[in-house]
Amino acid sequence: ALNTVIAADPGFYGIAIDSRADADVLAISAAVETMDRVFIAQTDDADAKTAGLPAGLAELDGRQNTALVYHDADAAFSDSSWLAGAISWDPSLQSAPWNRNVAGVAAASGVEAGEKLLIRANNINVPLPYFSNSAWMDPGVNLQGRPMHEVVSLHWIRNELQVRIARAASRYSAIGQKWPLNRTGQGQLRAIVEILLQDAVAAGHIDPGQYLVLAPAITDTDRALGRLRVTFTATILGQARTFDVVGGLLNSPIFAEAA
Length: 259
Prior knowledge:
Elements: H1 2-8, E1 14-16, H2 22-32, E2 38-43, H3 47-50, E3 66-70, H4 78-87, E4 100-101, H5 113-121, E5 126-130, E6 133-138, H6 148-174, H7 183-202, E7 206-214, H8 220-225, E8 231-236
Parallel strand pairs: 1-2, 2-3
Antiparallel strand pairs: 4-6, 5-6, 7-8
């Protein structure tokens, strides 16, 4: 199935499948884990409600690019709807949330309050009613418990960095120039990184003002390898999904009344 998708659209980003067979899920997940792409799987195994990750899917534990959904009805394609809704937003413009409404899908049924907590505690997602949303996917995480929007941010930043560096190298080649292996060339690489991080802030991937770019000294090893180095650290912009408001109502005034 994955080879068919790649042949039809090599630039695809996310995949969900109609098969619920453990072997099919494991095979697709193993392949996608080697790519900067995501796979959304779905299971109706009731063990997800009472014991955690179903035994047949134990290999999925801790995988970064795979997320698992529990739904009691195989034919309810909450995995496909969830994926389509989340990746309909261009990550170059908007870092979209993954705990979200799942359009056109009924909520999972027969999930008690304690089971809901266990499902989520084991990094499995489940669509349940939430306010006016008939099916709200929560907590929106991968099998490491990491928010899926962070996985998308990681993939997008890494891919954009590769593309922008390749474009700059191609421009040098097109005019018959070398990318200089000196502080000037390193400064050009640093500028690419800084502009990318500014774009990441604008799209909501990175917390504004929370990144640092450094250009380490060029060493003899760098020169021997033809290598320019720039390092950066950045803080991903998180998403609030739980809200705690504490209040109190009194019979007496809080502030003294005017005389």
